[in-house]
C-alpha cells in the first residue's frame, strides 16, 4: 500500500505540474508592481499601491498582522497623518474610461478630476471629496488637512462621492449667475482647510500658494483676493489659537514665490513680484515675517539689491535649523530681448568656439537652468545683514550644519570644464566663506573629485580621484590629511582606463569625531585629524560586503550610543541580509542572511517597526513587516499569486575560465520544468558584470530593451548571462574571450542545443554582440539594440541627451580604448565591427531609435546599411521619436512581440512572421504590423 500511495502521489504531482501554463505576451498585463509603500508613524499600519499592467492602481492598507483594513481601486499617493489616525489618498478615473474620453476628443480640462479619500482608522469610515488637484498635511503635527479644489464645477458623475459639507461649496455654481471672478491658474483656486477631528471646513478662496510649517501649527497661503470678503495678499493662520494675520497686502496681480516657513512656524519668508506690467526684468522683492509682527518686512528689492544682482524667484528660501538665518538667491540681470523685432529680422545662428569652457550643445540643454541660475545669499535675522556667499567666481555652495554654521564651502568647475570633455573628470577649485563677513579663503585648486562639509562643518572632506585617496581639511586650522593614502579604499575591480572610483562612506559620527569609510568589503572608522583608523567589520575574510543603513531620514550623523544596522552581501554566494553592530562593545552579529535579495528597510517615525522586501528569481519582492530583530517576519502583500500557475524558472551561478585565464562567474536561468536529458535553445544576454543580481526577481513585463527572463524561460529557453572583464584598449576582444568559453562550457554539459543559440543585448551589450559575430558563426541569430559599430565616427559624436562630447567615453570610461584615434588608430579600427561586416554570417535584428540621446542613431544606420549592402539578413526597428529605449507602452509591446517572433523563428523553428519576410512598408506604418505567422 505504501508503494502504491507514493506512486499515486507522484503521478498527481507530475500531472499538476504539467498543467502549468506557458507565459504569453497577454499574460504580462496580469502582473502587479508595488509602486509605493509606507508604514504609519506608530508602525501599526502599512499602505501600498499595486499597479496592474501599467494601468490602474489599487491601494491597500493592512495592519501589522497583514489583516486587510482598506482597499480601494484607482487610488494612489497615499500618506498617513502624523498621529497615524488617518490615511489619505487620491482616486483617479479608470484608465480605460480616460482613453475612451480621449478617443471622443474630450478636452484635457474637461477630463475627470481626482477625488481625495480620507480613511479614519477609529471610525472605519471613508470620506471622499471630489475635484481635488492637490493636498497637504503637516509633517510633524496633527489635526489638519488642506486640499485644493481643481475648479468649482466638479464632474457630476462623481457627485455622490462628494462630502455633504462640500456640496454647498462646489455645486451651487451650476446655476447661472452673473459673471464673476473665475478660479484658474491666474486667479488661484479654492483651498479647503479641514479639521480632521471635528470635520469642520473653511474655504479660502483664490489661493495661489499654501504651506504648513513642519513643526509649528501654522498654515501660510497667498491669495488674489475676493473683493467682497478677503483682501489680496499673504496670510498666516495660527491653528493653535485659530487666529489669522494678513502679513502682506497687495493687489490681485501680485505673484508670490518660494513661500516657506521655518520649522517652528515662527518665521516665514516669501518673494513677491508687485509689477503688473510685462517688463522682462521682474522686480522681485524679498519679505520676512516673524511671529508677533503684524506685517512681513521688506528685506531686499531691485533698488537695494547688490549692484549687478536681483532677487531670484527661482531659488528656494531656507531657514537655518536654529532659525537665525534665511538663505535665498541673488541672480544676475536677465538678458533682455528686443521685442520689437519680428522673426524675419532675427538671425538664428549658433556660434561654437574652440576654447569656451562648455560645449555649445551643453549650453543649449542647460539654457533654462542657466536662465534661473542664482547665487546663495544669507540674511542674518538678528541684524538684517545680507551676505552674498556664492559668486560668479565660486557659484556652487555647500552650507554647513543645516545652515547654522558660520562657514560655507564654495567651489567652481569653470577652469576645468574644457578638459573634462576628454578626461571625464570634473575637477574644482574650493574656498571657504564666512557667512557673517563674506570673507572668502581659497583652500584647494584643481581637486579632481567632490568636496563637501562634514555634518557639523568642522571639516571639508572628499575623494581625490587621481590620488585614489580620501582627504580631510580642518576648517579651523587649515590642516589637510590624506586619510587613506597607500591603502586600498578604491575600486579593486576597476577594468577601465580611468582612475578608480571610491566605495563611498557611511557617514560621520556625532560631533564630527570620526568618518566611516568603506573599502570593498568593510567599514572603517577614521580619525579625520590624524588618519588613524580601525576596522569595524570583518568582511574581507569571507568576501562579505557591509554597508550602513540609514533608518531615520533626518539623521545627520551616526550616533555611537545606538546600535547600527548594516546590509550584508556575499560576493561568492550572492546571499544578502542584515548585520547588527553594537558600537559600545565594538562587536557585530549577522541577524538575517540567505539566498535572497533584501531591500533597504523603511522604519516607522515613532517606533522601530520596519517594512522591507525579500526577493529571488522565483520569489516576488512582497512587503514584509518586522522589528529590527527581523526574527518574526509577517508577509504583508501578496501581489502576484497567479505566478504559481505558470511555468517559471530557476537561477544559478556557473563558473568557467576565460581565454585569458581569468576565473569568471555568470548566471544560468533554466525553465522550471528543466530536464537535463533534453536539449534547449539558449539566448545569451549580457552587459558587463551582472552575476551580483542573481537573486533579482524578473516579473513578466514589456521591458525597454532586453529579453524578459521569466517570459523566455517559461517558453522553454535557457538564458546565460556571463560576467565580462576587460583589458584596456581591447573591449571587443575581452568580451569574446570571456563569453565564448562560458558558452562552450555550457554546451559541454549536454543540455544546450548548440545549433540554436542566440545573442541579445542593448547599447554597450549591443556593441559587444556586433563585434563577436564578426569573429564567430556559433550564434544562430542576434538582436543588437542601439549598438556602436564605428568607434571612429562615434568618438567625434555628441551624447545628445546631455550635450557632452563622447570623447571621454572612448578614452577613459566604458568604451575603454585608452586614448585618442590619433594616438591609437588601430585600436579604434580593430574594435569597430563596421570594418569587418563582410565576416558576419549571422542574422541580425537591430533596434535603434531616431531620438536616441545616448548612442547616435547613425551608428545603427551604419550597421544596417552595411549589412544590407552585403546582402546579410538584417532588420532595423526604429521607434519614431523614442530615445535610447522605446518608452511608450505601445512601442515596448511591439518590440517585445517582434523580438520573440524573431528568436522563435530562428531558435525554435516557429513560423516566420510577415514583417520578417516583407517588412512593413511606409504606406502601412501604424496600420499593418505584420505580426501574422506564415505557413511554411
List the helices and strands and how they pair.
Elements: H1 2-18, E1 32-39, E2 45-52, E3 57-63, E4 68-73, E5 75-80, E6 86-91, H2 95-103, E7 115-120, E8 125-130, E9 132-136, E10 144-149, H3 164-170, E11 189-195, E12 201-212, E13 218-223, E14 233-238, E15 243-249, E16 255-261, E17 267-273, E18 284-290, E19 297-300, E20 310-311, E21 318-319, E22 325-331, H4 360-365, H5 367-371, E23 375-380, E24 386-388, E25 396-399, E26 407-412, H6 417-423, E27 428-434, E28 440-447, E29 451-453, E30 459-464, E31 469-474, E32 480-482, E33 505-508, E34 515-518, E35 523-526, E36 533-535, E37 544-548, E38 563-570, E39 576-582, E40 587-594, E41 597-598, E42 602-603, E43 610-615, E44 623-626, E45 634-635, E46 649-657, E47 663-671, E48 680-685, H7 709-714, E49 718-722, H8 731-747, E50 752-762, H9 764-772, E51 781-785, H10 791-795, E52 798-799, E53 804-805, H11 807-811, H12 825-830, E54 844-847, H13 857-869, E55 874-877, H14 889-908, H15 914-918
Parallel strand pairs: 48-49, 48-50, 50-51, 51-54, 54-55
Antiparallel strand pairs: 1-2, 2-3, 3-4, 5-6, 6-7, 7-8, 9-10, 10-11, 11-12, 12-13, 13-14, 14-15, 16-17, 17-18, 18-19, 20-22, 21-22, 22-23, 23-24, 25-26, 26-27, 27-28, 29-30, 30-31, 31-32, 33-34, 34-35, 35-36, 37-38, 38-39, 39-40, 41-43, 42-43, 43-44, 44-45, 46-47, 47-49, 52-53
Helix pairs in contact: 8-9
Amino acid at each position: 500500500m505504501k508503494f502504491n500511495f507514493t506512486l499515486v502521489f507522484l503521478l498527481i504531482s507530475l500531472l499538476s505540474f504539467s498543467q502549468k501554463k506557458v507565459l504569453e505576451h497577454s499574460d504580462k498585463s496580469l502582473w502587479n508592481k508595488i509602486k509605493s509603500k509606507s508604514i504609519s508613524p506608530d508602525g501599526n499600519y502599512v499602505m501600498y499601491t499595486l499597479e496592474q499592467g501599467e494601468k490602474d492602481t489599487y491601494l491597500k492598507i493592512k495592519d501589522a498582522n497583514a489583516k486587510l483594513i482598506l482597499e480601494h481601486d484607482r487610488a494612489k499617493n497615499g500618506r498617513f497623518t502624523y498621529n497615524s489616525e488617518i490615511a489619505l489618498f487620491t482616486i483617479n478615473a479608470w484608465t480605460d474610461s480616460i482613453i475612451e474620453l480621449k478617443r471622443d476628443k474630450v478636452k484635457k480640462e474637461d477630463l475627470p478630476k481626482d477625488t481625495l479619500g480620507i480613511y479614519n482608522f477609529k471610525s472605519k469610515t471613508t470620506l471622499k471629496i471630489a475635484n481635488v488637484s492637490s493636498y497637504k498635511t503637516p509633517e510633524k503635527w496633527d489635526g489638519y488637512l488642506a486640499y485644493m479644489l481643481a475648479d468649482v464645477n466638479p464632474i457630476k458623475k462623481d457627485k455622490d462621492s462628494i462630502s455633504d459639507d462640500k456640496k454647498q461649496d462646489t455645486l451651487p455654481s451650476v446655476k447661472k449667475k452673473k459673471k464673476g471672478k473665475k478660479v484658474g491658474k491666474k486667479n488661484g483656486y479654492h483651498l479647503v482647510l479641514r479639521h480632521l477631528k471635528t470635520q469642520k471646513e473653511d474655504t479660502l478662496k483664490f489661493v495661489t500658494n499654501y504651506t504648513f510649517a513642519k513643526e509649528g501649527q501654522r498654515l501660510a497661503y497667498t491669495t488674489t483676493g475676493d473683493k467682497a470678503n478677503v483682501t489680496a495678499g499673504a496670510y498666516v493662520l495660527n491653528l493653535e489659537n485659530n487666529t489669522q494675520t494678513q502679513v502682506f497686502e497687495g493687489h490681485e496681480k501680485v505673484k508670490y514665490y518660494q513661500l516657506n516657513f521655518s520649522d517652528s512656524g515662527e518665521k516665514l519668508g516669501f518673494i513677491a513680484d508687485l509689477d503688473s506690467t510685462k517688463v522682462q526684468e521682474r522686480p522681485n522683492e524679498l519679505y520676512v515675517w516673524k511671529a508677533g509682527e503684524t506685517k512681513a518686512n521688506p528685506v531686499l528689492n531691485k533698488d537695494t539689491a547688490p549692484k549687478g544682482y536681483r532677487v531670484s524667484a527661482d531659488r528656494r528660501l531656507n531657514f537655518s535649523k536654529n532659525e537665525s538665518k534665511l538663505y535665498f538667491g541673488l541672480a544676475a540681470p536677465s538678458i533682455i530681448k528686443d521685442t520689437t523685432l519680428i522673426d524675419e529680422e532675427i538671425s538664428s545662428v549658433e556660434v561654437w568656439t574652440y576654447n569656451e569652457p562648455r560645449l555649445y550643445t551643453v549650453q543649449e540643454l542647460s539654457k533654462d537652468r542657466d536662465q534661473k541660475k542664482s547665487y546663495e545669499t544669507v540674511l542674518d535675522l538678528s541684524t538684517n545683514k545680507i551676505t552674498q556667499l556664492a559668486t560668479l567666481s565660486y557659484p556652487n555652495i555647500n552650507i554647513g550644519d543645516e545652515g547654522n554654521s558660520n562657514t560655507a564651502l564654495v567651489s567652481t568647475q569653470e577652469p576645468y570644464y574644457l578638459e573634462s570633455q576628454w578626461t571625464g573628470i570634473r575637477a574644482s577649485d574650493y574656498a571657504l566663506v564666512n557667512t557673517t563677513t563674506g570673507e572668502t579663503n581659497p583652500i584647494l585648486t584643481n581637486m579632481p573629485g567632490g568636496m563637501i562639509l562634514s555634518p557639523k562643518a568642522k571639516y571639508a572632506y572628499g575623494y581625490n580621484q587621481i590620488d585614489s585617496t580620501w582627504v580631510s581639511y580642518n576648517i579651523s586650522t587649515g590642516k589637510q590629511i590624506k586619510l587613506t593614502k597607500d591603502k586600498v579604499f578604491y575600486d579593486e575591480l576597476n577594468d577601465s582606463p580611468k582612475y578608480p572610483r571610491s566605495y563611498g562612506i557611511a557617514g560621520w559620527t556625532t560631533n564630527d569625531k570620526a568618518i566611516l569609510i568603506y573599502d570593498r568589503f568593510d567599514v572603517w572608522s577614521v580619525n579625520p585629524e590624524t588618519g588613524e583608523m580601525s576596522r569595524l567589520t570583518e568582511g574581507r575574510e569571507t568576501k562579505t560586503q557591509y554597508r550602513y543603513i540609514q533608518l531615520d531620514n533626518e539623521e545627520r550623523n551616526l550616533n555611537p550610543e545606538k546600535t547600527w544596522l548594516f546590509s550584508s552581501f556575499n560576493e561568492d554566494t550572492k546571499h544578502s541580509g542584515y548585520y547588527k553592530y553594537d558600537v559600545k562593545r565594538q562587536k557585530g552579529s549577522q541577524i538575517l542572511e540567505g539566498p535572497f535579495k533584501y531591500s533597504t528597510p523603511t522604519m516607522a517615525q515613532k517606533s522601530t517597526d520596519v517594512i522591507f522586501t525579500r526577493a529571488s528569481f522565483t520569489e516576488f519582492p512582497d512587503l514584509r513587516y518586522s522589528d529590527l530583530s527581523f526574527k518574526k517576519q509577517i508577509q504583508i502583500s501578496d501581489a502576484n499569486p497567479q505566478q504559481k500557475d505558470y511555468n517559471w524558472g530557476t537561477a544559478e551561478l556557473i563558473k568557467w575560465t576565460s581565454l585569458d585565464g581569468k576565473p569568471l562567474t555568470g548566471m544560468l536561468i533554466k525553465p522550471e520544468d528543466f530536464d537535463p536529458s533534453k536539449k534547449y535553445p539558449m539566448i545569451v544576454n549580457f552587459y558587463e558584470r551582472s552575476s551580483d543580481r542573481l537573486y533579482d526577481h524578473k516579473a513578466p513585463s514589456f521591458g525597454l530593451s532586453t529579453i524578459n527572463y521569466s517570459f523566455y524561460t517559461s517558453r522553454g529557453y535557457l538564458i546565460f548571462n556571463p560576467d565580462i572583464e576587460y583589458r584596456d584598449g581591447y573591449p571587443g576582444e575581452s568580451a569574446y574571450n570571456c563569453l565564448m568559453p562560458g558558452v562552450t562550457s555550457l554546451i559541454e554539459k549536454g543540455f544546450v542545443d548548440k545549433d540554436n543559440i542566440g545573442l541579445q543585448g542593448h547599447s554597450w551589450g549591443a556593441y559587444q554582440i556586433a563585434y563577436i559575430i564578426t569573429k564567430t558563426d556559433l550564434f544562430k541569430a542576434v538582436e543588437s539594440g542601439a549598438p556602436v559599430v564605428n568607434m571612429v565616427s562615434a568618438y567625434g559624436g555628441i551624447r545628445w541627451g546631455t550635450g557632452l562630447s563622447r570623447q571621454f567615453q572612448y578614452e577613459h570610461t566604458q568604451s575603454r580604448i585608452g586614448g585618442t584615434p590619433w594616438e591609437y588608430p588601430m585600436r579604434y579600427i580593430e574594435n569597430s565591427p563596421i570594418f569587418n561586416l563582410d565576416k558576419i554570417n549571422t542574422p541580425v535584428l537591430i533596434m535603434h531609435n531616431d531620438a536616441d540621446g545616448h548612442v547616435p542613431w547613425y551608428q545603427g544606420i551604419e550597421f544596417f546599411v552595411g549589412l544590407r549592402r552585403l546582402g546579410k539578413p538584417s532588420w532595423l526597428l526604429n521607434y519614431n521619436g523614442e530615445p535610447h529605449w522605446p518608452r511608450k507602452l505601445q512601442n515596448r509591446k511591439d518590440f517585445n512581440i517582434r523580438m520573440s517572433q524573431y528568436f522563435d523563428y530562428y531558435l525554435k523553428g516557429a513560423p516566420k512572421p510577415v514583417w520578417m519576410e516583407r517588412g512593413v512598408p511606409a504606406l502601412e506604418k501604424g496600420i499593418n504590423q505584420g505580426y501574422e505567422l506564415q505557413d511554411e
